[in-house]
Amino acid sequence: MADISSGDCLTSRAAGKGEKRSNVGSTQGNSLLQAQQQAVQWIGQQVQTQASFLGYMDVFWVLMLISISAVPLALALGKVKFGDPAHIGH
After folding, report:
1. How far apart are CA 43 and CA 51, in angstroms?
2. Which of 46, 39, 1 is nearest to 20 (CA)?
3. What is the C-alpha to C-alpha distance for residues 39 and 18, in angstroms, rounded to an integer?
4. Residue ranges per domain, the chain?
5. DSSP codes, 28-50
């Protein structure tokens, strides 16, 4: 561990990796207001991402229901005889 009494340099928890924090009394990163704004933006992005994913899931469910309902409709249609004259009118 480094000498804490000097105040010039204090090793961080990852001292084995060579990372060090200088100026022990100084603040790191953004101000409190900036950190709060970034947190709100990050939460907004997460909500938007999850909403998009749920929207895609809803579309796939609707397409599945349409596909499943089309199968009985196709089976209920009468057979078409090719080569016979077409019936026009009543």
Report:
1. 12
2. 1
3. 29
4. 30-77
5. -SS-HHHHHHHHHHHHHHHHHHH
Asked if residue 13 has pLDDT above 50, the reply is no
DSSP readout, 46-69? HHHHHHHHHHHHHHHHHHHHHHHH
Angle among Cα 49, 50, 51 to the nearest 5 degrees reads 90
The pair of structure tokens assigned to 89 is: 């009118």
Q: What amino acid is encoded at 89 in this protein?
A: G
Minimal CA–CA distance to 6: which of 16, 18, 20? Answer: 20
Cα atoms in the 13 Å half-sphere on the side-chain side of 78: 3
Rounded to an integer, what distance in angstroms lies between the CA atom of residue 69 and that of residue 74? 9
Q: Which amino acid is at 16?
A: G
pTM of the predicted model, to two decimals?
0.46
Structure-token pair, residue 23: 């100026």
How sure is the predictor about 9, in pLDDT bands with cuts at 50, 70 and 90? very low
What tokens were used for 3?
A: 């000498």
